[in-house]
Amino acid sequence: MTIINRRNAILGWGVWTVGKKQAKRKARSALPTDGRRAGMGAAVASGLAAAGGAIWFWRRRSGGDETEET
Asked: Does 56 or 30 have the greater pLDDT score?
């Protein structure tokens, strides 16, 4: 008797499909219903923080003024 057979594969596929649909429905219901884009300010702030961090890292790596300690 095998664990992986056609019946279990079809049952698992069905459970996965139904679970995905329910998760999508729950995610859509959690979003605000007003016409504005909620969370856009947070996305902009995250983008600016990431850009600032990248610039800071790049400037620190390319700076030749500092002496290396060994």
From this structure: 56
